[in-house]
Specification:
Number of strands: 23
Number of domains: 3
CATH architecture of the largest domain: 3-Layer(aba) Sandwich
Number of helices: 13
Distance between the termini: 61 Å
Strand order of the largest sheet: 1-3-2-15-14-13-12-11
Structural class: alpha+beta
Largest sheet: 8 strands, antiparallel
CATH superfamily of the largest domain: DD-peptidase/beta-lactamase superfamily
Radius of gyration: 25 Å
Length: 490
């Protein structure tokens, strides 16, 4: 860290000495967007070209770190950490990293298991009795995304929340406690669920008697010397060197941030420099009892009820994905929330890791990381995967023409007691429109008798008739949420 400047006159010799000292430190550490090359890098211009779109005035961007054999070989900031003050990104900039946090939560759970505080076979309701009894959901199911629990980020959006909105853990737990069904029976399938990792964070707190921020510090970040890293749970907390998040706007950028304190599935703040220690621990574990097998257990995939690995060909361990890129093993996890996007991509056999932390919502850190890997691992990777031929006429759901006289049967008010909201179905310009008052409208297209979808085709509504032939409600499916029931009340 660079200390705050003393109060000096610009005309005195001490001022000149101070400025020279800061310039020297900034150049040496890569601050202010300057590149730091620890070893000679033949493809440096190729790497910088990958991030060229962020190297322009008034743009946020990304911080890059490339580690080989336990040390940085390249690190640089591209773009601004804060547009209002003109502060550049560098390797010490601290980012919200979205789902990159899951690997730290997964490690916490394994460390607590190692210390005998909990078991991976504990029933969820042993630690979170507020949750309804929806089946034998275990800690292990939560770790490997095989629980069947609906994803809370989808649920909250359906309830009218936006990413920037604030809600706390008790409110979220209240929403989850009202759920009356799973997406599937525990262990039957793999389906990524932020709900599972929020609950893991809560389980870690209740089993240990400590807050997750304290757990992260005492069990992971402190022992590894990751002084700028934490589980962020206090929206009023000042975070030194925090990068601001942004999203594009017609005339530039707008701030895209949140004070959301929900931890476990996300909310780890960290920097490129701090992640060096996390990467080193992959090869030489210093956490818990120092057991060398801890990393193997962290990487080990979950198993479905039929014995197949969770995640399929790209397996999922305890908050970390294991797959391949161009024929070599890749261990990675990406994340994104509001104006932040991140990825930490490791190639164990090549002892190479690429870290891309970005503060603009349109960044694609996984794509950037793969492009950087192509430069640093040239000659060590297999051939690129063949580009799939795009279908000239992609199949789409055919929209049926439904007379307004028939659409009227769907008009009315429908309540979801699980979400605690009421949707209004009304007709506008010959179409059925789903409306959440004071939040949003979704024009619907008819897919068949009683089946509708929004204009993007992602949200599907399936209306149900009772024995008398009248519409009494509908079920809603959207990605990581299925079978959500809405009852007609008017």
């Amino acid at each position: 860290m660079i200390a705050p400047p003393p109060v000096l006159s610009r005309n005195c010799p001490q001022w000149v000495a101070f400025v020279l000292a800061v310039v020297t430190v900034a150049t040496a550490t890569g601050c202010g967007g300057a590149a730091e090359v620890v070893r000679p890098l033949t493809g440096r211009s190729d790497v910088d070209a990958i991030f060229a779109e962020y190297q322009r005035p008034g743009s946020p961007g990304c911080a890059l770190g490339v580690i080989q054999d336990g040390d940085f070989v390249y690190r640089r900031g591209y773009g601004a950490a804060n547009l209002e003050y003109g502060i550049a990104l560098d390797a010490d900039s601290v980012f919200r990293t979205g789902s990159v946090a899951k690997q730290f939560t997964g490690m916490l759970i394994l460390l607590l298991e190692e210390s005998g505080v909990l078991s991976l076979d504990d029933d969820l309701r042993k630690w979170v009795p507020e949750m309804p009894d929806l089946g034998p959901v275990t800690v292990r199911h939560l770790l490997h995304h095989t629980s069947g629990l609906r994803d809370y980020l989808v649920l909250t959006e359906l309830a009218g929340y936006r990413e920037q909105d604030f809600y706390d853990a008790p409110q979220l737990l209240g929403l989850l406690s009202r759920q009356r069904a799973l997406n599937f029976a525990p262990g039957d399938e793999f389906l990524y669920s932020n709900t599972g990792y929020f609950l893991l964070g809560l389980i870690a707190e209740r089993a240990s008697g400590k807050g997750i921020q304290e757990l992260g510090e005492t069990m992971i970040f402190g022992p590894l010397g990751m002084a700028s890293s934490q589980f962020y749970t206090d929206p009023n907390q000042i975070v030194e060197r925090r990068a601001s998040g942004y999203a594009p706007a017609p005339d530039g950028f707008v701030i895209s941030m949140t004070a959301l304190p929900i931890a476990g599935d996300g909310s780890v703040f960290t920097s490129v420099n701090d992640l060096l220690a996390w990467d080193r621990n992959f090869y030489d574990n210093r956490l818990g009892n120092g057991d060398a097998q801890l990393i193997s257990r962290w990487l080990a995939p979950g198993r479905l009820n039929n014995g197949d690995p969770a995640g399929g060909s790209s397996t999922y361990g305890a908050g970390i994905g294991v797959g391949e890129y161009r024929g070599v093993e890749r261990v990675s996890h990406a994340g994104g929330f509001v104006g932040f996007r991140a990825d930490m991509m490791r190639f164990p056999a090549q002892r190479t890791t690429v870290i891309t932390l970005c503060n603009v919502a349109t960044a694609s850190p996984s794509v950037l990381a793969r492009q950087v890997a192509d430069v640093f691992l040239a000659g060590q990777l297999g051939p690129p995967a063949p580009t799939e031929r795009q279908e000239t006429t992609a199949p789409v759901d055919e929209e049926f023409s439904v007379p307004v006289s028939q659409l009227r049967r769907y008009q009315g008010r429908y309540v979801s007691r699980e979400l605690g909201v009421t949707y209004v179905m009304e007709i506008r310009e010959g179409r059925l429109v789903a409306r959440l008052p004071q939040r949003w409208d979704r024009p619907l297209k008819a897919l068949g008798d009683g089946d509708f979808a929004d204009s993007d085709g992602g949200v599907e509504l399936h209306f149900r008739r009772n024995s008398a032939g009248s519409i009494d409600g509908f079920t809603l499916d959207w990605g990581r949420v299925t079978g959500l029931w809405f009852e007609r009340i008017g």
